[in-house]
Amino acid sequence: MKAATPAPRSAELRRQLLALVPLFFLYHLGLLLAPRAANGVDFFTRLSGLLLHHSTLLYLLLLGLLMGAYLLWLRSMPGRRFIDSRRLGLTLAESALYATLMGPLAALLLNRLHLLGAVPSLQGPLEKIVASAGAGLYEELVFRLGAIWLFVKLLAGRSRRNWLRLLLALLLSALAFSAAHYLGPGAEPFLWASFAFRLVLGLVLGVIFLWRGLDTAAYSHFLYDLFVLFLG
To answer: Half-sphere exposure (CA, 13 Å, Cβ side) for 204?
Structure first.
């Protein structure tokens, strides 16, 4: 079982980040064909767009360089494979279980609360897949790995009880996750019902992150969003 800590040991964290490589390229290559599916906290595309003057050719070159660097790193590490298919398969199976539990129920609740119409519409399956990949990748990096770790550090001097700091960090990260959906251009209008719904979702994903790791949380989020977008 993966350690239930907000900051996994470096080797385990590196393994979890490498497990997200397929999700990274699925999202960023898909974004070339479905730019409307860009995620709001996708810092990589925004920064690279500014640095590369929004050149598609240079963006493709950057992705190619990243893939080449990844392959060279694998070659320098004896026994490393491009994708650990067995471990990734187990992670996907576990994530699919969590998404299966969350997805259909979420789609039903969103329909009952008339909240799906408030979300910017995505046309076609490609945009839905790309948007789901971006949410699973970047929202977990920012709001689970980044925010939970940050809040635990900020609360370090206020409580000696690790469990209390972790609980508060979990709650604060879920609040930030929910609030982020109402910020920025094109954001949906604020509704208490949708805010509370996403707060609970953020707590659930935070628990998955702490209990099972970043990769499981990211793929659970990815598959969950697919359920909601395709079933909703």
So the answer is: 16
